[in-house]
Design brief:
Helix 4 packs antiparallel against helix 5, helix 13 runs antiparallel to helix 14 and helix 14 packs antiparallel against helix 15. It is elongated and about 80 Å long. The longest helix is centred in the first third of the chain and has 14 residues. Helices cover 73% and strands 0% of the residues. By secondary structure, the chain is mainly alpha-helical. It contains 15 helices and no strands.
Amino acid sequence: LIALTIFQASLWISVYTLWQHTARYNPDSWVVRSNLASGEEVERLFPAAKRDALASIAMHELNPHAYLVLGSAELDMQNPAAAARALTRSVDLRPQSAAAWTRMGIAQSMLHNPDASETAYRHALDIDPDDETAWNNLVTLLANRHDYPDAKAAAQRAVALQPASVSAHFNYGEMLLKTGEPAAAANQLRIALSLTPENHTVRLQLARTLVAAGDPAHAAIEYQRLLTEDPNNSAARTELHALQSPPPKNQPSLSKPQP
């Protein structure tokens, strides 16, 4: 029956629907319940995913996939301690799972354990050097401890892996700015803005970066575009006013000139 149902997968709306259907006929299969939980996690049905992952584990304790799904659901429900416990079990059973190590890094970050988080991300990247989530999260972690050169290298890798990612280009721009390359940073932010033209956060950061790059004319254009889209943006209005205001003149000296 399972084979027949999988053969019919193209007839179903989603993988979740497929496993939901299969579970009606095979509720005592740990494989079915584990895959149903995975589908529920993708569909953002986190309590249901947790329930079915636990059911699968109860049927077959040595089930790394079910622990991974359980940990992911706990993360999405903002339960990092429970997530870390489940993910520890997952990587114990399947240490070569990059996905489990990446989620472990997220859980440890939420628990304010940056060293453990970095270790987990680097384990993930040793297994899968193309893990986009691990690279992006590693950028944030390294930047938070002011390790900007390493963060820049990680951000560059993330951009190479996901050239259509707004956050990857934005993060790379931020790290280029932190390492004293404002013109290159502005180029990355232009790319990010081209991918999401209505993103006010990106446009504001581009304007600020252009100021840092010594290009006030183009910075003013970006501020003005932002204010056209969002007239109530007080930061953009204040910064544009400061940019367009003449520098204060030197106060005349009150002391007598020296002969």
